[in-house]
Amino acid sequence: MDYLGILGNAVRGMFGPEAAIYALAAVGLNVQFGYTGLLNFGQVAFMLVGAYGVAVGVATFGWSLWLGVLLGIACAVVLAFFLGVPTLRLRGDYLAIATIAAGEVLRYVYRSTYAAPVTGGVFGLRQFANDFFALNPIPPGRYGFGPVDFDSRSLWVMIVAWALVALASLLVFLLVRSPWGRVLRSVREDELAARSLGKNVYWFKMQSLILGGVIGAVAGSMLAINVQSVTPDSYNPVVTFYLYAIVILGGAARIFGPILGSIIFWFLITFVDAFLRQAVGSGVIPSSIISGADVGAVRFAFVGLGLMLLMVFRPAGILGDRKELRLDVR
Amino acid sequence: MRARLMAFLAVCFAAFLLAPSAFAQDQGQSIKGTLRGPTGQPVAGVTLVVASGGTEVGTTKSAADGTWEVAVPKSGTYTVTLDVATLPSRYQLRNKGGETLSDVAVSTGQKRTVIFPLAPAGTQQQGGSPGSTTSASPGVVSGGGAGGSTGFATRFAQLVVEGIKFGAIIAITAIGLSLIFGTTGLINFAQGEMVTIGAMVAFFFSTSPFHLPLVVATLLAIVVGAGVGGAMERGIWRPMRRRGSGLIQMFIISIGLSLLIRHTLLVVFGSRRSQYSEFTVQRPLELGPVSITPRDLVVTLLCFAVLGAVAFVLLRTRIGKAMRAVADNRDLAEASGIDVDWVVLVVWLAGGGLAALGGVLFGLTTAIYWDMGFNLLLLMFAGVILGGLGSAFGAVVGSLVVGLVAQLSTLWFSPELQNAWALLALIVVLLIRPQGILGKSERAG
Description:
The structure holds 2 protein chains of 2 kinds.
Chain A: H1 3-15, H2 17-35, H3 43-60, H4 65-87, H5 92-111, H6 116-119, E1 125-126, H7 130-134, E2 142-145, E3 148-151, H8 152-177, H9 179-189, H10 191-196, H11 201-227, E4 229-230, H12 237-250, H13 257-281, H14 295-313
Antiparallel strand pairs in A: 1-4, 2-3
Helix pairs in contact in A: 1-13, 2-8, 2-11, 2-12, 2-13, 3-4, 3-5, 3-11, 4-11, 8-11, 9-11, 12-13, 12-14, 13-14
Chain B: H1 2-18, E1 29-34, E2 47-52, E3 55-61, E4 67-72, E5 76-82, E6 91-93, E7 100-106, E8 111-113, E9 118-120, H2 152-184, H3 191-206, H4 214-242, H5 247-269, E10 285-287, E11 290-292, H6 294-316, H7 318-328, H8 330-335, H9 340-365, H10 372-387, H11 392-408, H12 418-432
Helix pairs in contact in B: 2-6, 2-7, 2-9, 2-10, 2-11, 3-4, 3-5, 3-9, 3-10, 4-9, 6-7, 6-9, 7-9, 10-11, 10-12, 11-12
């Protein structure tokens, strides 16, 4: 077994484009779940509209890439209103189910033959981010140390995505320290108290949902740009569960929570993946127990187990404060 | 403000309805065919499902001229299944097991034609090899039924029957979800996996090496399902409650549990879709304008019998009254001498057993695959919330509404969107009557 290769893979995974993009989406979720206490289980829906904003804008309508990103953001704002109006007045668990349902409805609609002239149906859309890669200042080649190296395309996506993560984190940092952010936290801690102080709780929740959703949409468009393709079925509810695992692992309601969470999460995920593939490939684990095709499933099972253990033994995550986050809606 | 938003929503729906629905599938690869009866007349309104490695790729219904086409994302081998339940009762498949064509290979850009040979109902089915994928002519056997056109009223009645059947199956699985929520406040995300476990346990016992009759295997599945429910309660939820964990914390734990069980089942069972060996091909009964196979009739009646039994237990027996008391006010119930932990354990046992039974019935009417429960889970949520969160009778009413909406939407829209319409119904109800159809208004507050 090539342990150095496995470790190299894992280190590549923890800083790679996916880790950065998931960190960005998790920053958005952290605004909603961490700071406002909203149980948004449809963050993947915001990523979906963001991704399809770019893809449809460029590939179907022939717009420029930047207009496509704006389209995705606009769709995310509309979606937040759609979700927020019926559910934000209700208890948190309604929002959870309505958002997860809305995410699935959107996926069904985007993949339907009915919408296929615009979205490409189950095929999705391809080759719409050439504008982005044309701006790449890094000459082609591979960069890195030893087994950890990236090609110039990944490096360019990484630079932009991590810069966006830094920007979004700075924005959230400034916002939550402002009076606005204190109202958000008071809504999370005691909605009734915030309301009795004359705050429009409903509108603050809506703003939080929109802000988190827009950050999620930008993450979605980066995800689409990274692989130059979108397919509706890659935006399934499991993506949202990944994001929850990331936010909780790092520590909800902490600025560096989502970033640290994403780095550790992707290190573990790629490590398990690479380790299992090597172990199955070299016969250390007999293929009668786990075959190569099952590695993906085992990876998801590990995420589930990890999420459970985290919630049982350390619900506040690595950076979190147990006192600040009671994680209770009733 | 509220009225304006409603109007906005209405406009959005209208735009959705008016957008062009037909378009030419001129790029990429697809699987297509024309369904014709024995005398060559087209057969409309039959559901066809294309799956790849257990995951559904697309669903369609045959058009008025019998044609159908499902786009597939990439080259590869696919499984095409004809839903026998939607086949007009005057036809059956000429070959036994011919409703499933596995290993349909599609190359890039190819429009692969597959054929389901049909025969008049009641004739002897040919055993052995499933329907051909290569022969070019439609199955022509002498005889044949009446003309191919079916009126709107007939289709409506047929879909109402389908909807009630689907809704009753959802209700069986959702009632446990609702009882668990009512007594403990937990939204159990792993309920869908209890459904899958039930279907798979019954499949395991009904095939080699056991070859038990499906009825016996179902009883065993119910026992195992109840055991799984009880084990979850004793192993996870009771200790968590003792530690004073928050409900959101437990909700996220149940999501993790769901992911863990679902993907473990995928590794163990594989990604294929399977069918029980019994009751697969049956001759439908004609009941006035609608037709239903004896299997589906029994499934529907069994669901209602079980729901009736649950209602009886809840309303008339000691443990049922205790369950309702705990759901109403846990502390008061405990103070008046009810053993709350025991009641909650019974609720989990019952919820697990009902979910397992629902899984077998769902597997019987569709197929058994690794994420069947998860696909059903959102519809269960929709049913529970539609009816009123925490109300067992509400869950039944809501589930029936969900089943009917899902099936009736196929009158006007593509069947691939039927679940989307059911979930949209959930969001619309939340907008108009957030406490649900039978819910008390303070529950939503």
